[in-house]
Amino acid sequence: MIVVMKKGASQEEIQHMVERVEQLGLKSHVIYGTERTVIAAIGDKRNGYRASLESGPGVDEVVPILAPYKMASSEVKAERSVVRAGSLEVGARRIGIIAGPCSVENESQIIKTAKAVRDAGATGLRGGAFKPRTSPYSFQGLKKQGLKLLAQARNETGLAVVTEVIATEDVGLVAEYADVLQIGARNMQNYRLLEAVGHSDRAVLLKRGPSATIEELLLAAEYVLDAGNPNVMLCERGVRTFENHTRFTLPLATVPYLHHKTHLPVIIDPSHGTGHAYLVPDMAKAAIAAGVDGLIVEVHPNPEEALSDGYQSLTFDQFREMMKICRRVAEAVDREITPHHDIR
Ligand code: PEP
Ligand code: MN
Which ligand is nearest to the CA of 269? Predict the structure, then answer.
């Protein structure tokens, strides 16, 4: 249920209603909007207490939340959420651009890439230190050493670091070095991991599983929100279909659909979504035209020699060209791609 407070309800009235909700055995989450404050009352006993809450001081109305995901739902919060992590801002007018290699490979690779993507206008640096690979014989990432190199790249460029955490026991370590914890597609329904990042104070980039429905993605986000972390970004990275001309099938309708269903910012990954570098710039443009809040793009100094995902990685020149066009599309749809040094 949502307890909608009257315009101008006092802090005492809000606090009183929070206590009432908790007395009823429900979990409370207060959401302060620009117009009004609402208290989400979450628990199994969905309908039992409506009348009793409705008569509380300062309460305007009590309405049920129809979606199975509660805190993620746009029913609870109509205004779009903005996630900020260091130089990265995703949501509202700003489009956040996260770019970098699939995996951190060595010092010169990550530092060179960080500088190149920053100069082209990226606001976040991606790079996997812990890699979830389909084969156990593939490069698994530099792990802690990779995290240290990412932190060095942040020191040298000012870019926020986005990196994947693949195991619950690594959340503390990765959070020491990262600004954003990426939950990979394979782990979207690893509920203990979602709870663990929900307890962290780092922002979370949650990727859609290749065979997960949007509702399952939103329920996965709900785990993170419910554990107390409001800074969740949702990422469409393509789903598995019968089609095989692309690595995955990238449904861009996910962007407006999610904007309809949730207040959380939406990111598109055109690299994993297509699996071919030559398709990435056009899908990035299309995503921006569709209203996306951020992009995550693989870029490598020499894709041919990349230890993972080289075939879908852009060169520095290709990324720079892509950014020029993306800026123009962003402007056409009333959005902006702001270099990190211009972000307050
Ligand atoms: C990645 O970002 O390199 C990655 C492994 O992505 P996904 O989890 O979407 O496959
Ligand atoms: Mn990759």
Answer: 1
Q: Is the pLDDT of residue 40 over 60?
A: yes
Query: With a 6 A CB cut-off, is 128 part of the ligand 1 pocket?
Result: yes
Model confidence over 280-311: pLDDT tens digits? 999 999 999 999 999 999 999 999 999 999 99
Q: Angle at the Cα of 314 (from 309 to 320), degrees rounded to 5?
A: 155
Q: Which of 321, 325, 328, 318 is nearest to 298 (CA)?
A: 318
300 lines ligand 1 (CB under 6 A): no
| Same domain (yes/no): 254, 294 | yes
- Determine the structural domain holding residue 107 and report its residue range: 83-337
Please report, for the domain that includes residue 52, its CATH number. Answer: 3.30.70.1140
pTM: 0.95
Give the separation between CA 32 and CA 107, rounded to whole angstroms. Answer: 44
Decide whether any atom of ligand 1 lies within 6 Å of the 207 Cβ: yes
How far does residue 125's CA lie from ligand 2's centre (Å)? Answer: 13
> Does a structural domain hold residue 70?
no
SS3 96: strand
- For residue 257, what is the DSSP state? H
- Which long-range contacts (C-beta less than 8 Å, at least 24 apart) are formed by 105-108? 105/142, 105/306, 105/307, 106/149, 107/149, 107/152
Please give the tally of structural domains in the chain.
2
User: Residue 4: helix, strand or coil by DSSP?
Assistant: strand
Query: What confidence tier does 222 reach under pLDDT thresholds 50, 70, 90?
Result: very high
